[in-house]
Amino acid sequence: MVRAAVLPAVNAPLEVAEIELPEPGPGQVRVRLAAAGVCHSDLSLSNGTLRQPAPAVLGHEGAGTVTAVGPEVTGVAPGDPVVLNWAPSCGDCHFCGLAEPWLCAHAGRAAGTPYATLGADGSALYPGLGTAAFAEETLVPARAALPLPAGVPLVDAALLGCAVLTGWGAIHHSARVRTGESVVVYGVGGVGLATLQAARIAGAGPIVAVDVSPAKEELARAAGATDFLLADGPAFFEKEGARRVRALTGGVGADVAVECVGRAETIRAAWSATRRGGRTTVVGIGGRDQQVAFSALELFHFGRTLAGCVYGNSDPARDLPVIAEHVRSGALDLSGLITERIELDGIPAAFEAMLAGKGGRALVVF
To answer: H/E element holding 363?
Structure first.
């Protein structure tokens, strides 16, 4: 038996309970978690914004040590430190054939298959985003367990599984930021902080951070922001914010805007703050009710590019070694994303803090 934070049903409170994991089957790996980050996507799964069968064990940003492997597993072995990949690509579908593994047609398959049982009554449990990291141990497909590069602390490495890969990819793969370009980042949570660090490493400047909480300014500047703007009301999102960004970027607007919130008003504000011919990348995951409007004339006139960004448009197997080099050199500070270290029963409070716009990344440490 292992302890886990179980979601009994959509919109139900999480319950810490004992679950039972089977032995690894063909192509499966069992992992003892060292840590798991509490991501906004977990909140979206719990409240139904994102679809997830229940009862389930959520958590998709994690790192740990392999304890057992099933037949046909060759990439990792017991004792190996690994990072969980919540979107493992199949390597065979149309999108994988286009070298776009972040769009893999089968990446979410594991999330719809029961992987464990509830200790109390033996009922089937589903793994949140296929990884179920809010537990002392989990069982994942071998493709979802990536070897952790040497020299990266195992606990902090949990953030590589989502926040860092997403923020890094948003800058380096989706927006393709070049040295000297200006960047504005909307939303200074875990992903936003990772995006700011990635922009700094890319040599961007100025780097403007935007958030509704004044308490985020210190975190943002530590991550690499040269300027901080407080989104202090509807007027900011309608026109004032774009004017203030232009004032900080030579009067033309940011070369690149990255939206890490997933709300209509922040997507629209990010678009408006981007210069003519610039790039707007949307990382935040919003609900179906979040409708964004553009006029046909402005689409023509501004010539901007608006792009969605899935998992940072990253190939984790390719990108993790590159990111690890920056961690080892000290250029990328994983601990700088973490504002709270908690236990399993602290996850509901971490959800509430995210809803209130507080803090960076809460990390469950086992």
So the answer is: strand 361-365
- pTM value? 0.94
Find, among 33, 16, 120, 29, the residue nearest to 366 by Cα: 33
pLDDT in tens, 295-309: 999 999 999 999 999
Count the Cβ atoms, other than its own, within 10 Å of residue 306: 18
| The pLDDT of residue 50 | 87
- Alpha-carbon gap, residue 181 to 203, rounded angstroms: 8
Reduce the DSSP state of residue 268 to 3 states and report it.
Answer: helix
For residue 254, the SS3 value is strand
Alpha-carbon 32 to chain mean position: 21
CA–centroid distance for 102 within its chain: 13
Q: What proportions of the chain, in percent to the nearest 5, are helix, strand and coil? A: 35, 25, 40
CA distance 191 to 260: 7
Task: Reply yes or no on whether the pLDDT at 243 is more than 90.
Answer: yes
pLDDT averaged over the chain? 94
Cross-strand pairs, 186: 210, 259
| Contact between residue 309 and residue 170 where contact means Cβ atoms under 8 Å apart | yes
Q: Decide if 241 contacts 269 (C-beta within 8 A).
A: yes
The answer to whether 157 touches 328, Cβ cutoff 8 Å, is no
pLDDT digits (tens, 9 = 90+) for 331-357: 999 999 999 999 999 999 999 998 888
Helices (runs of H) and strands (runs of E) counted in the chain:
11, 18
